């Protein structure tokens, strides 16, 4: 059901107003219909009361010709108003039921006219089922009464006055609901939809267009490339103030990021220079083991510094997006490790092209493969296309045969400077930034990085699966 509902503010507001208007007009139509029914009931009850009080003895006829125009006696006469009837028989026919609500209404009207009522009966039947009408139609099988009577409901009232043993029977057709009233409600609804919903659509468009532009601006902010010009405020005053505030915030953030880049460049230069000098000076150390440990320490510091600088710069990449075939990129990474004699295997892949920053994505895959080799002795990489929740994803998986990670530590492993216990110690190398950098690169491309323990047939952990999911 939710998939058919509009997701935008513009669509949801219009749908809400349209539904509210539809409900209001439906309630209005129901109330109008009920009021019309009440008027018809009251009018018919008054007609019955008049007949029962006045007891007209005349046979009212209207001269009508076959073409519907009134003529004299030569044109023929057709009965239009049913005569009063006096009978000793009960007015209720077999199978008919009394109608207490209508009896109560007619009873009140007759009492107001001073009629002493011994018994009052009100029922309804089809006009053509009435014995008086049937008697009149015996010689005329084709209906010749007023068109509005045909197929309508006929109210029959039987009154027995106090001290009288005969029934006085009156008949009156119940008017049909006026279709013009319903057409009026429909026309009114259409006009309201045209004026109200149309006007609201124009207003919402004036609000939603600058909001949509602002949304695209926020989504693309920090995505690399030259800084765009500030947005031009538009729309209502509230929206203009929001855009102005966003421009100011964007300028402040851009200034802070520029200062960060300058600071990182200075840190990288100021730290790498003395590290290079130390690397030269340790050559004078005579003890080979000591010299090797010192050189390894310098390499660790340099590698950690590179990871920190890369992690800081991943949010503002300078290289542009390029359409890259992901399976070819993964295959190139596998070839690099194969050339070094590392046990890295290329699994099943699918051809998927996407705009990526190839240098950064290649580094993320290398970090995952490096972890797999460090803790699982071998790595297997695959690329697949998957559909989930109405979206398509490119999924890059790196699997190892290592000990896995305890479930309660998986989330923490993606945080900076976090290493696992046991075999995932400082002695195995790394500063705990590889997974953090890989996650940042995945998020830079709008994707995610997740770690999942592989469960074997025996229920034990058969290794770790690192999965980069990039939306297509």
UniProtKB/TrEMBL annotation:
Residues 65-74 have a biased composition (Basic and acidic residues). It is an enzyme of class 2 (transferase). This is histidine kinase. It catalyses: ATP + protein L-histidine = ADP + protein N-phospho-L-histidine. It is found in: Cell inner membrane. Residues 65-98 are annotated as: Disordered. Residues 205-258 form the HAMP domain. Its main location: membrane. It comes from the Bacteria. CDD domains: HATPase, HisKA. The lineage of its organism: Bacteria, Pseudomonadati, Pseudomonadota, Alphaproteobacteria, Sphingomonadales. InterPro entries: 2C_sensor_his_kinase (IPR050980), HAMP_dom (IPR003660), HATPase_C_sf (IPR036890), HATPase_dom (IPR003594), His_kinase_dom (IPR005467), HisK_dim/P_dom (IPR003661), HisK_dim/P_sf (IPR036097), Sig_transdc_His_kin-like_C (IPR004358). The chain crosses the membrane at residues 185-204. Keywords: ATP-binding, Cell inner membrane, Cell membrane, Kinase, Membrane, Nucleotide-binding, Phosphoprotein, Transferase, Transmembrane, Transmembrane helix, Two-component regulatory system. Residues 266-472 form the Histidine kinase domain. One of its GO terms (molecular function) is ATP binding. Its EC number is 2.7.13.3. It is a multi-pass membrane protein.
